[in-house]
Design brief:
Layout: E1 4-7, H1 13-23, H2 36-45, E2 50-55, E3 58-68, H3 77-81, E4 96-104, H4 113-128, E5 132-138, H5 151-159, H6 168-173, E6 177-182, E7 195-201
């Protein structure tokens, strides 16, 4: 299966919304899916970070990013993403690409769509000369282990392959390494509202 990644425009809104509706079906609140104004803001503020994956001309996944100055300070998704509008959180002179969203239509999962989007993000980091790619990663398997260990221990065990997490295990396979647990990152029952900041360093800048 050949996956093509390109930047999206406001004309892709219906396709982007369909991806999100399938990736986050009810009872996920419809009002939390991307709206037209948010997509317009992504395209206007940082068009290079607005990506879709296509298979045979069909939009199968999407990913949205912005540039930030990495400080290592704890934060929430809303703070990093400017509530999904990115206008007030995008820092053109920053040093890091921050991925705020990536989703794939269920029928196309496990077929290289997410990998293609992450590869495109890495290429964007390289082309812009940024230091790193970072993202707040959900840990939806954590609720099953919360009575046995804290989030930091859970993340460590996933990173070492002792536990498989539906999202973090994938991130680790893409070369993103866990850096810190973020409390109250996003309302997310499975992750107990926690996330882990993951990082991929630009190999072209190592040692500089």
């Amino acid at each position: 299966m050949s996956v093509r990644v390109r930047t999206y425009t406001l004309d892709d809104f219906d396709g982007l919304l369909q991806v999100q509706r399938e990736a986050f079906p009810p009872p996920f609140p419809e009002e939390l899916l991307w709206n037209r104004e948010q997509i317009a803001a992504h395209v206007e503020t940082f068009p290079a970070g607005a990506m879709v994956a296509e298979v045979d001309g069909i939009i199968t996944g999407s990913a949205t990013s912005l540039i930030v100055q990495y400080t290592g300070e704890p934060h929430t998704w809303a703070e990093a993403a400017d509530d999904g509008y990115i206008r007030n959180s995008h820092q053109p002179d920053g040093d890091s690409l921050y991925g705020i969203d990536l989703c794939v239509r269920p029928a196309f999962r496990g077929r290289g769509v997410a990998q293609a989007l992450y590869a495109a993000r890495k290429e964007l980091v390289k082309s812009l000369g940024l230091k790193r790619l970072i993202a707040g990663c959900r840990i939806p398997g954590f609720h099953q282990y919360a009575g046995q260990m804290d989030a930091a221990e859970y993340v460590q065990k996933v990173a070492h392959g002792q536990i498989k997490d539906p999202v973090l295990t994938f991130m680790v396979k893409q070369g993103l390494k866990p850096q810190q647990v973020l409390d109250d990152y996003l309302e997310d029952e499975e992750s107990l509202n926690k996330a882990v900041l993951v990082e991929w360093l630009n190999p072209g800048l190592k040692g500089r």
